[in-house]
Amino acid sequence: MAWAKAPDFRDQPERIEAVRAQTVVDKQTYLDLGMQSVECRTCGTRVLARKNSFKQTSIQWTSDPADTCPVFKEAISAGGSTAQHDSCPRLRDSIDHAVAEGLLEVVDREGV
C-alpha cells in the first residue's frame, strides 16, 4: 500500500473555499463553543472546559499550568515536563463535580 498525500484541490477554487469555510466552523465548534470556566476546587486554577459526552472532556488552560497548578509544578520541579501529564486529577475531579452540580453541561448525555 502506497502513501497518498491528501488532495490540495489546486484546480478547484470553489472547493478550496468550501474547505476553508468548514475549517472555520470546525474551529468554532471544537475549540470555542460551549467552553465554560471551571475552577479547581483544590488550588483555584481556572480553565475553560466542555463535556461533549460523559467520557470526553475538552480543557483549555487559561494560564501556564506549571505556574498555577501544584501537580504540574511538581512535575517540573522533579525534572519532568507538563507535556507528560494529560491533566491534573484534582482538576478532573473539579470538572466532574461541576457536571454533578449542573454547572457544566454534558452536550451528548447518551454518547459513550
Question: What is the gist of this entry?
Answer:
The protein is of the alpha+beta class and 112 residues long.
List segments where confidence is low: pLDDT < 50 over at least 5 consecutive residues.
Answer: none
Order of helices and strands: HEEEHHH
With strands numbered from the N-terminus, the spatial order across the biggest sheet is 1-2-3
**Rounded Rg:** 19 Å
Could you estimate the helical fraction of the residues in percent? Answer: 25-40%
Strand content: 5-15%
- What's the story with the biggest beta sheet? 3 strands, antiparallel
Which class of secondary structure composition applies to the elements?
A: alpha+beta
Mean pLDDT: 86
Count the E strands: 3
Shape: extended
Gap between N and C termini: 33 Å
Count of runs of 4 or more consecutive helical residues = 4
Layout of helices and strands:
Blueprint: H1 13-32, E1 36-39, E2 46-51, E3 57-61, H2 65-68, H3 70-77, H4 89-100
Antiparallel strand pairs: 1-2, 2-3
Task: Write out key terms for the chains shown.
alpha+beta; 4 helices; 112 residues; single chain; extended
